[in-house]
Amino acid sequence: MRLLGLVRTSVALLAMSMGASGCGAPTRLAEPRAAEVPIGMSTRSTGDARPPVTVIARDGDALGAIAVAVATDGVAEERGALVGVALAALVEKRLSLHGVEALAVGGWNGWRLRTLVASPTEAVAVVDAIRAALLTSVAADEPALIEVARKVGALAPRPLAHGALVDLARCTGEAYGSTGDVTPTAADLESWRAASHGLGRVAVATTGAEGIGEAAVRALRRGPTWARGAALSASQWPAPDARAFVYDASGEIASGTARIVVTARTATAERSVAAASAIGDARGPLASRLNALASPAHLHSVVATANRDGGCLAATIDLAASDLTSDAPARIATAASLARQEISVEIADVTPDPELGRLVATRATDPRDAAERAAWWSLAGRREGQSDTDARINLIVGVAAPRDASQPAGVGRADEIRAEIDRATLAWHAPVVDARTRVERGQGDVWLLLASPCGTLPEGAGDAGVGAAVAMSAAAQAAQGARDVEVEPFSATDGMGLLVHGSRRSGETPIAQARRLADVAARAFAADAIEGSSIYPARSALFLRGSEDDARALGALANALALGHPSWVLPSGTLAGLSSISDEVIALRAAAVRAGPMRVAVLANVDAAQADAAVRSVDRWIARRPGESRSCPPVPALPAPRAGTYSVERPTGAPSEALLAIPLAPGDREARGSAMWLAAALQGSDGLLARALSPSGEGAGPSLASAWNAGVVGAPYAPALVVRIVASDAALDQAVAQTRGLLDRLRQGALSEGDRARAAATMAKANLAASLDPRARTIDLWRGEPPPPAPSLQALRAFADGVLHDDGLIIVAARPRTPLPRAAAARETKARGRE
Fold first, then answer.
1. Phi, psi dihedrals of residue 467, rounded to the nearest 5°
2. Under 8 Å between Cβ of 199 and 51
3. In this predicted model, which residue has the larger pLDDT, 745 or 426?
4. Are both 488 and 576 inside the same structural domain?
5. Whether 710 and 674 share a structural domain
6. DSSP per position, 421-458
7. Residue 401 DSSP label
8. DSSP secondary structure string for all residues of 241-310
9. What is the pLDDT of residue 53?
10. Is 421 in contact with 336 (CB distance < 8 Å)?
11. Domain that holds residue 456
12. Claim to verify: residue 549 and residue 592 sit in the same structural domain
């Protein structure tokens, strides 16, 4: 029996096949739960020295079924699948000669037979015939030998492409032949039959009404005893440290292409089969990560098998010739080591249901499939001495020579490919993501922020806002399939990525919850290509935001503070930058982000193991290559900020606004902290600005401004203390003058201890609000910067004296368009018409 997770276009199936012929309809399996397993499946004893019978009792089928499974492992192993194919042909023909229409299919590890029965009476006759066909010695002149010769001859045109693929055949059980196969003699067949058709190697199963199963049990019980089959020894597994085998696959696959086969042995069949569903999913982690590589690799198939001493899973991966025209060994190695690592992780992480074998059998719609699966699974067992979660991995790489190559690629570059795989494997084992975690037990959600610490550093005036577009596009794409996960874009000067959070699903473990959230963020931000359908709304939203009055004023300020790099101050970008970026530019920026450093912050709500699981899940999605260096670009030297007054036109009727900015030294955290405290002293209804903007300058009477605030922007690359004033057009100039006078007084030491105390209260209130918000806590954890220490009054005065110089002030005045008098407007309209 083999269970297949076949990837074809966008469809992933976990199915059971009849063997090399591929007979039998695939069956989609849901997540197995023991409560769903029907109770009508049981194992019945037939007495000593007779094989037991697995009985699936169910109604509704027009006919019942009987199946037999036989293990041929260790019997003439040098003949490969020929043993199983020959014995299957022998028994099928013997039954046919006795009037029993059955289908027998042989493979590398055994053979299987199934047939329909209409009644208990017929079941007895069929069981008797099967027993005779299995246990009767082979005669040199019996007619069945003709059918054996025919089936063996049909096997020869389907040889293994290379001896290295024997491991794949052993894993999947597929029937492969050899052009040198010789039809077995009667003596050969008898030797194989005696070794295989005995107790310990044969299983029987029935499907249908209860009477069919009981009839089969009675027939075996009253019949003669069975000899024991040849002893079953442990099957051959790859060595733990086995290196990849590389061979010339020319003629097997298209010219210039490569094929990677990963086989994984597990101690139990349940683990391989359960893992196949996730590994073979066309939208799952393995397929998505392979597709996101610089040279995309495509998951061709995933096959999971139940064997007598464990399980086996085989994944086949293809690389196109167009992606291997340069640096082929490294590109093949990256895909191969990624696949090996991902398969190992999935096998270790899966939680198989111990009732999975029952589920596989009882879920079959055809009674013959159900009986065959039950029979084969009853032969499956556990491999002793092997950990449940470990997987023994073997890697086989076939490379076909290009059409114009003079030397076969698989032979000429084998050592180079193996060396690259070794290097790539080490690279995949080394963590890439910078992790910062904290456990907050009892919280409702797990929070995770994955972002590039480079932020807007690489952006210039021509692409200001492209990072924000990447974050918004990735968030929109992730949200489409995230279900109960909240996804938000994170866009700041010092970081750009995704913030996700979500609560635990019913029955979900804390670790599974963390992995699910991490997969949503990492898949969207670090692996999947951003689709155009997600880019368009993100660009439109950013463009609308950049068109708003406040954003236009901030854009002018950003251009003055960070010449050539406005997004260092305004991460959402400027109209000029957003108008210049295309889908291709956004895609290139996303690729550059993925090749750079990544940082993740996790607020777990159970324990450290939950946080670690989230970090490991994120790290799995980040592609890497040996020897690569992940760092942000160096910070370019900027010209000094351009002091002066800048004008921005606002729509008619809009209030006027002024931004007054005092540039700070980049990288000076102490100065930035003092600026934050000074901004706190400036704001509020009883702050320094409130008093300065009253007509008397002492806070009495109506204010010159309708709104005001202060803060620090542009950190860490172009920081500045900024004061914002909103006023009527007539009062704006006076409000600006009053503010400039206030700043000059502060420079001369006017700040009092009362002002500092008020700033301390404002800072404490803001810090409390942030500490109560898990979103803010997650971002603070990601940044990893402690809050600025409280400066003394003397330190604040020294800071004011050092930076509050009027000649370095940048002022942006945003005023509404002045309406023209009616006559002037008419003349202008006529003039435009003549133009």
1. -65, -40
2. yes
3. 745
4. yes
5. yes
6. HHHHHHHHHS--SEEEEEE-TT-SSEEEEEEETTTTTT
7. P
8. TPPPEEEE-BTTB-TT-EEEEEEEEESSHHHHHHHHHHHT-TTSHHHHHHHTSSS-EEEEEEEEEEETTE
9. 96
10. yes
11. 435-621
12. yes
How far, rounded to the nearest angstrom, does the alpha carbon of residue 131 sit from its chain's CA centroid? 51
pLDDT for 402 equals 87
Token pair belonging to 516: 């699910």
Query: Cβ atoms within 10 A of the Cβ of 779, count?
Result: 19
For residues 675 and 803, state if they share a domain.
yes
Distance CA 504, CA 399 (A): 45
First to last CA, the chain: 84
- Can you state the angle between helices 186-196 and 82-97, rounded to 10 degrees? 90
Strands (E), 475-584: 486-492, 495-502
- For 456-482, the pLDDT digits (tens) are 999 999 999 999 999 999 999 999 878
Give the confidence band of 21 by pLDDT, cuts at 50, 70, 90: very low
Stretch among 22-31, 315-324, 517-526, 580-589 having the lowest mean pLDDT: 22-31
**Least confident span in 177-181, 209-213, 758-762:** 177-181
224-237: per-residue pLDDT in tens? 999 999 998 888 88
- 4, two tokens: 């297949």
Q: Tokens in use for 357?
A: 């074998």
Domain final residue pick, 222, 240, 265: 222
Grade residue 429 by pLDDT with cuts at 50, 70 and 90: confident
Q: Write down the pTM of the prediction.
A: 0.78
Mark which of 164, 187, 222 sits at the end of a domain.
222
Strand order in the sheet with 64-71: 41-44, 53-57, 202-208, 64-71, 110-117, 103-106
Alpha helices, H only, 75-209:
82-97, 120-135, 144-155, 166-172, 186-196
Q: What is the mean pLDDT of residues 673-693?
A: 95
Beta bridge partners of 199: 228
Note whether 533 and 669 are same-domain residues: no
Asked if residue 330 belongs to a domain, the reply is no
Q: Mapping DSSP to helix (H, G, I), strand (E, B) and coil, where does residue 612 land? A: helix
- 798 C-beta neighbours (distance < 10 Å), count: 14
Closest listed residue to residue 88, CA positions, set 106, 100, 70, 115? 106
- Summarize pLDDT for 811-832 with one digit per residue, the tens: 999 999 876 555 555 555 555 4
Residue 575 and residue 656 in one domain = no
Q: Which residue has the tokens 């903007």?
A: 693
Question: Token pair of 506, please?
Answer: 């019913």
Strand order across the beta sheet in which 297-307 lies = 11-17, 2-8, 297-307, 310-319, 258-266, 392-399, 245-248
- For residue 561, the surrounding DSSP H or E stretch is helix 549-561
Asked if residue 366 is part of any domain, the answer here is no
What are the structure tokens assigned to 194, written together?
A: 């005696």
Query: Are 538 and 498 in a shared domain?
Result: yes
In this structure, which amino acid lies at residue 572? S
Residue 156, Cβ neighbours under 10 Å: how many? 16
Return the ∠ at Cα 565 (arms to 561 and 567), rounded to 5°.
90
> Which of these, 234, 233, 195, 188, lies nearest to 82 by C-alpha position?
188
| 464 shares a domain with 593 | yes
Q: What is the pLDDT averaged over residues 612-622?
A: 93
Task: Give the SS3 label for residue 483.
Answer: coil
Question: How many independent structural domains does the chain possess?
Answer: 3
Mean pLDDT of 3-8: 34
Sheet holding 599-604, edge to edge: 434-439, 599-604, 446-452, 495-502, 486-492
Q: What is the dihedral of CA 731, 737, 742, 747, to 10 degrees?
A: 160
